[in-house]
């Protein structure tokens, strides 16, 4: 059965980070993941995780300067030192929080600079992977669709697979976000099967709305069953933008009775 983690960048977002962790636990999620938790001391978040009894999965590297149009730094030539500092901060949080992975955000690159960007990206990821391996952590890279992330260097799963292989590091993996994959090319199940050995995390959301995964183009019960048949037994991140209050939209879990029963049991135990 799928094991779902709550992405607290979108879920329970009307609360503080610590309150989001508690709310995810109360809703029955056994794990959480975050985008950018850096305004909260790591020790404070670790206390909230321990109190709630949930585990931390991944966090993102800082994006850089939004005012400059930054959306990550890992593939941006000339900003290697900034990326290294951003990664070191993210890794320190992952270690302190007991997290499993750091998502290294690639960044926005001009069309005529993609060759240099790829070299920069591979070099930065290789160095980051060596640091992460020493701490027992995984590096994730995630293709983002150009509709939501114009100019983002990493846009499709096949490109991500080539980048992972170019690093030559076993702890560099793909974050397979079904929402982005569907928008960039579709054929979600077959594309997952082709890159399955390189996948380090899975995320879901409705397409095209990015709301709860119970509407739109993708039939997630069938998709996740196919992923499981292909050997996926890791967590599935619920990274969607709720239509309203997060708790009011969790009915989608009823499509996965075993997961829902586990969630209910966890909620009752609390």
TrEMBL record:
<dbReference type="InterPro" id="IPR026040">
    <property type="entry name" value="HyI-like"/>
</dbReference>
<dbReference type="InterPro" id="IPR050417">
    <property type="entry name" value="Sugar_Epim/Isomerase"/>
</dbReference>
<comment type="similarity">
    <text>Belongs to the hyi family.</text>
</comment>
<keyword id="KW-0413">Isomerase</keyword>
<dbReference type="InterPro" id="IPR013022">
    <property type="entry name" value="Xyl_isomerase-like_TIM-brl"/>
</dbReference>
<dbReference type="Pfam" id="PF01261">
    <property type="entry name" value="AP_endonuc_2"/>
</dbReference>
<dbReference type="GO" id="GO:0008903">
    <property type="term" value="F:hydroxypyruvate isomerase activity"/>
</dbReference>
<feature type="active site" description="Proton donor/acceptor">
    <location>
        <position position="142"/>
    </location>
</feature>
<protein>
    <submittedName>
        <fullName>Hydroxypyruvate isomerase YgbM</fullName>
    </submittedName>
</protein>
<dbReference type="GO" id="GO:0046487">
    <property type="term" value="P:glyoxylate metabolic process"/>
</dbReference>
<feature type="active site" description="Proton donor/acceptor">
    <location>
        <position position="239"/>
    </location>
</feature>
<feature type="domain" description="Xylose isomerase-like TIM barrel">
    <location>
        <begin position="21"/>
        <end position="255"/>
    </location>
</feature>
<dbReference type="InterPro" id="IPR036237">
    <property type="entry name" value="Xyl_isomerase-like_sf"/>
</dbReference>
